[in-house]
Amino acid sequence: MVNKKSPIEDVPITSRAKRRSTGIVGLNLLLDGGFPEGTLIMLYGTPLAAVDLAAYQFWRGEDEEEGTYLMNDGDVDAGMLDATDMHPDLYLTQMAGNRIVIDSLSILIVKYGIDVALKFLHTAREEMRKRNANLVFVVYTGIHQPIDMTRIMRAADIVIEFGTEVHQADIERTLAVQKIKDSAAPQRLLPFIITDRGIEASTTSRVV
User: Other C-beta atoms within 10 Å of 190: how many?
Assistant: First the structure.
């Protein structure tokens, strides 16, 4: 009798998407290594929830990868591009490297409208997939209409919510992966703190 190997065992695993570090160790673990290459990532929360800091840490990265930080909603630090007066149609021409950040998509919606912002995301998605790059964009809660938030979330491949709760004298900050396209999102909250080095997330998470 011939000892046949299982056909499943003979097939190499090649379909798993390559991952790019989020810049936050605990989030990398939650996402099985980081953001799948070629995806759009929405970070949302209040201005006090550290969404902009998470975007900055992704852009800065943990390697020598080039990236572009388009700042239209705050102080322009060294290495960032001042996109205050730049129309979204010009953004793609400025996007160099594989770590792209838009800070913030909220200001684009306020200045140009939801349809213009969504058109930009659609075009950017195709470009990110071609380049195996990642685009992270920041959205602030409490600004946009619920229907607009829904449309933005549908346009993103990954949606991460940053939350802040005050318990007496303590501030608790957590993040939750609400959506991963074509995959189940982790049903867990990831606690984090803000230090002088940036966001430090726990390497363990809490079931929700």
Answer: 24
Q: Which tens digit of pLDDT belongs to each residue from 79-88?
A: 999 999 999 9
Q: How confident is the model at residue 205 (pLDDT cuts 50, 70, 90)?
A: low
How many CA atoms does the CB half-sphere of 198 hold within 13 Å?
16
Q: Token pair for residue 188?
A: 């867990």
Domains of the chain and any CATH numbers: 17-207 (3.40.50.300)
Closest CA to 173 of 53, 62, 21, 71: 53
Find where tokens 């984090």 sit.
192
Residue 146 CB neighbours (<10 A): 7
Query: Three-state SS for 127?
Result: helix
Tokens standing for residue 64 = 């020598």
> Do residues 161 and 45 touch, judged by C-beta distance below 8 A?
yes
Nearest of 22, 19, 98 to residue 62 by alpha carbon = 22
pLDDT band for position 7 (cuts 50, 70, 90): very low
